[in-house]
Amino acid sequence: MAPVTQVEGRAYPFGRANIDTDIIIPAKWLKTITRAGLAKGAFETVRAEADNVFDAPEFANAPILIAGDNFGCGSSREHAAWALLDMGVTAVIAPSFSDIFSGNAFKNGILAVALPQTAVERLMDVARTDPIHIDLEVQTVTTRFQDRFAFDIDPFRKNCLLAGTDEIGLTLESGDKIASYEASAATARPWLNGRLAA
Questions:
Q1: 145 burial type by CB count under 10 A (0-12 exposed, 13-18 middle, 19+ buried)
Q2: How far is CA 72 from CA 18, 75, 90, 109, 147, in A?
Q3: 160/179 Cα distance (integer angstroms)
Q4: Side-chain half-sphere CA neighbours of 63 within 13 A
Q5: d(CA 100, CA 79)
Q6: Are 131 and 156 in contact (CB under 8 A)?
Q7: What is the percentage of the chain residues whose pLDDT exceeds 90?
Q8: pTM to 2 decimal places
Q9: Where would I find the H helices in the chain?
């Protein structure tokens, strides 16, 4: 996955609380065997509403989504993260996230930024007219109006996002060490491989 260091641009000022994964990507879109094209189904029920932010031209291809409390609750479908990525969203700002969504977002290279409700409300106001800047390295969200909001992130997740890797990538980086260990273990304990010592 691509490294995430900074995310800057317009943000969808969505703001609704308790948005579950079925709203992010309805179940009928889960039959796909590819991640491509899920943007068409993302927030389908919200897009059915007149004047929704997702179809407003000024927010087209916005890399940031600002949501309300408990974003990504509901089922564990990883398609929710895939749909956001297919929309071009690489960061979501909300007061809180469901644990499963937060994990799926991280594993797919989406930065989930938890900020207090007052900060989210301020960013919603700014997002209606101006871009927002997120800097993962220094863990801040800023605006051109001198707003500066610090956020916490798990150090492991931060390092993985900055490097553009996940748990599988980290394991693959240790491939030589793993192969060496397996070879020495096979020699020292041949019965583990179904062979008896000579």
A1: exposed
A2: 7, 8, 15, 16, 26
A3: 23
A4: 13
A5: 12
A6: no
A7: 77
A8: 0.88
A9: 21-24, 44-47, 79-87, 99-107, 117-127, 155-163, 167-173, 175-188
